[in-house]
Every structure is written in C-alpha cells, then in structure tokens.
Amino acid sequence: MTTSQAPDDRWTALGWDEEWCDAFADLPGVAARVGRVDRGWLRVLHRDGDRSIAAPTSGTSPVTGDWVACAFAAEPPHVVTVAPRRTALVRRDPADNAPRPQVLAANMDEVWILHAVDQPLRSGWLDRALVVANGSGADVLVVVAKADLPGAIGVAADVAALAPDVTVHATSAVDGTGVTALRARVDGGRCAALLGRSGAGKSSLINALLGDTAHRTADVRTGDARGRHTTTRRSLTRVGGGTVIDAPGVRALGLWEPADGLALTFPEIAELASGCRFADCSHTHEPGCAVVAARDDGALDTDRYHRYITLSD
Q: Are residues 109 and 241 located together in one domain of the fold?
C-alpha cells in the first residue's frame, strides 16, 4: 500500500481501523472511502481531502460506503480495486427482469430503518426492510421519525409490536428528541445506513445530526406523506465521530437470498423450524412441521406466521 496513513481523528471517523489497515497491506494504491457514485465517477473521502476519481471498468462495482484502493497519480486517477466488504445492504434489483442483487450500501455498522409518524404503517414494507437490514450483517434499529407530531407514542408502540426483537427509537428533527442518542451511536468511526420510504425524514434527520442544513430538504406532499425525491443519490456524510449513509426513498424492497434475514427477523419461527421433520420444510403443509403445529396450538402468533410465509414465497 503506497500510503502512510497514521491514525488521526478525521481518518478514524471515516471508519479506518487496524482491520482495514491489514486488509489494505497487500492492495496497491491509496486507501479511500466511497462517499458517492455518479455515472462512472466516484467521490472518495481520504486522509488528505475529498476528490473525484474514475470507477473501475471491471471487477466489483463500488457503492457508497466501500473502501477502495486508488491510483491518484495516474491519468486519469482511478480506483484500482474494491476491498472486501464487511457488511452489505442488498436487495433484488428492481430495474432488471433477470434476477440479480443490487447493493445499496456497504461497510455500515448499523442500519436505521426510518418510519415517519405521518406515513401509513405498512407491515409488509417494514417486514421486508427488516429482512434486508438483518441480512446485511449490521445491527438494526427502527427509527420513528417526526416524533413531535401527534400520535407519535401510538405509532412507536405499533412499530414495536410488528418488530418485537428490534430496538425502536423515537426522534424529531424539529425539537431534537432522540438526536443526541443517535449521534452517539456512530461515535468512534461507526457508520449507519438509513433505509426508508420517500418522506420518512432521512435528510432532515441528517441535518439534525449535523446541527445545520447541509442536506437540502423538500416539502412532503399532503395525502401520501411522500417527499419530492430530495435525495437523488446515496451519499456518505461525516457526522460527529462517525458517518451516515443517506439514500433516496426506497419503495421496492425485493428480497435477495433472504434466509439469514428471515431467521433474524422471525427468530421464534427459525427456532421452531429446527424441530421440523424435513430440512426443506416449507412450513405450510408438510407432516411433522413444528411451525404449523405451534401455529395451530396458539404458541405461534398467527399474524407473525402469515407474514413469514408471505416473505418466504
């Protein structure tokens, strides 16, 4: 590695640590972190500043949050290779008829699923978000945004009922509720990726975390609580002692290889499934299915069962 990157606060805040140092020991070029991807060009953040650089023409396509080895002295400056990812937020690519994965963000320590008080709470979307987030390898938190609005306590309770094994955190960019606690979660070089529908308040939350208006926000349409697509590209922002990855509002959350995410989202069903007679049990009709037996005798909540089966299809 052709860089002398001694630890400093700014570099550490980007997530650089001894593990990344070891990973880059055999990689050619200067280590940097991808802050944004834009039509074949990357905005990368490194110890000496931020700059634009050409994306690699082959191999792994970098995404926001990736650590990359860069040839800054080349013409044009370009990314040589992408370091192996620790975590990745992956969905099925909604723009392609042929099934393939789409990586939304990489190397985050936490995924914050945002739901705004003024949005309809759809269990199907929340379940999919939880499966995708749990499958990323990162810790998961549900953030109930706009907690200054009427009904916030009830909405938070409804979210907690749908996601009983996940911490639910209420926050408001207007009055500052919960902002300090969220900021503390990314201290020490940790990174949080935001996942939410349009209008969930992602950019407003980042503004509150920053304490300024660095992220432009837009009005929300009345009637459906959707924003006007203020965030158009995924971007990594330095927040205090860590980073946050913002992203455009996500409507479609197709699942890609969801087994791990399903098991973590519905842990009681995963535990029951270990007692099924058949290893490939679909938990719908097979004899000796421990999941169906628990549903029928009331040990497993029927709504949780049906939500799980819907996602398993």
A: yes
Asked if 239 and 210 count as a contact pair (C-beta separation under 8 A), the reply is yes
β-strands 41-46, 30-38 pairing: antiparallel
Give the predicted TM-score (pTM) of the model.
Answer: 0.89
Average per-residue pLDDT for the chain: 89
Rg (CA), the chain: 21
143 SS3 class: strand
d(CA 83, CA 187): 23
Q: Any idea which of 44-58, 123-137, 286-300 has the lowest mean pLDDT?
A: 44-58
Q: Domain containing 302 — which CATH number?
A: 1.10.40.50
Number of independent structural domains in the chain: 3
Q: Of 78-92, 223-237, 266-280, where does mean pLDDT reach its minimum?
A: 223-237
- Final residue of a domain: which of 32, 54, 82? 82
* Beta pairing partners, 116: 145
Nearest CA to 230 out of 222, 218, 213, 240 is that of 218
